[in-house]
Amino acid sequence: MMSNRRQKQLMQDALDENLSSEGRNELFNTLDEDVRASAEFERLKEVDTLLRHAPHERAPKDMASNIMARLGAMAQRLNPEQLSHISGLATAIALSLVGLVTIPLLIAIVWIILNLLSSTDALNQLVRGLASLIGFVINGFGLVLDGLRGFMGENPELQIVAFTAVPASVIWAIWRNRRNRANKST
Amino acid sequence: MSVEDPIILQWVEDTIDGDQYAFSELVTTFQNAVYNLAYRMLGERTEAEDAAQEAFMRAYTNLHRYDPSRSFKTWLLSITSNHCIDRLRRRRLTWLSLDDPLPNSFNLSSDEPQPEEAMIHGERSEMIQTLLEGLNSDYRAAVILRYWYDYSYAEIADILDTSESAIKSRLFRARQALSEKFNAQNTPSNALIRPLLESL
Hints:
The complex is a heterodimer of chains A (about 190) and B (about 200).
Chain A: H1 4-15, H2 21-33, H3 35-52, H4 63-118, H5 120-154, H6 156-185
Chain B: H1 6-16, H2 20-42, H3 45-61, H4 72-91, H5 116-132, H6 137-147, H7 153-159, H8 164-183, H9 188-198
Helix pairs in contact in B: 1-2, 2-3, 2-4, 3-4, 6-8, 7-8
């Protein structure tokens, strides 16, 4: 008597049309002897026949166009994301570069300040330097004003021009501002 | 479609280069195969269409991963079957027990007048679908790929990312389960199936 496993194996091979002539004889002999196995094989063949003739379902007519529409929508959705991804990446790189430049600079400044605070001579030098810089700027302003005063004294007509030009330009600026507002409201 | 089909490969390359028209050619060529697999796996037309669309979208976004030495159809069906298996697992359906009686969809009577051939086609399709719904998703995928697409065990194993012996075992168990379900019925509706079988 053939083992159940062997019997099922032969049935499977028969359904797959993969049975040798010896295997076919072996299976048919078993089926002749075993009524239950014969009934089981008949049932398997029935379902096999049914599945072999199973109809193919066709895609709905508008499926392809729906897919292409979804694809178009996806492409539109992706673009802003990609852009924001790229801009995010650029920002991150820029920040990293700024950090790379700034951090050593900050460290250097902190180091200088700490050195200055720890040395009174250096602190004196710094205060003196700052005071001379402020004095230089004030002297510069004084020189410019003196020069301007001398120029005005040599050309008195310029005083009259300046005297009339300043209020005239203020009046012109106010008038222009009002006209712009009126244009915007209309 | 052979692996070396230059037209398919050209469409794939053009799509990767940004030509959406080339992808529409791929969709048109394979839409029936993808939809049929999705419908047989999911058993519901609206969901099948949605799954088929999703499969194409996934194929599009992963096209750069496609290996041209493989068949494009096999690769596409692999995406589809995996997606459908995921959907079925998410759905957490209460599967029809093999001992349950077949549902009313086996009843061939219809009030709507239909051409006889179309009616037989529709009823046969529905009957097979009901049988398939008794199988778990892995077994169902193996049966569909074997009977509808005529793939070998090795090809099915490749698509479902498993071994050939696993596919052989799944198919055998699936066939047994289907035949038991099919023949366990002694309802009057089953008597109406016989003429269908005899007509094959």
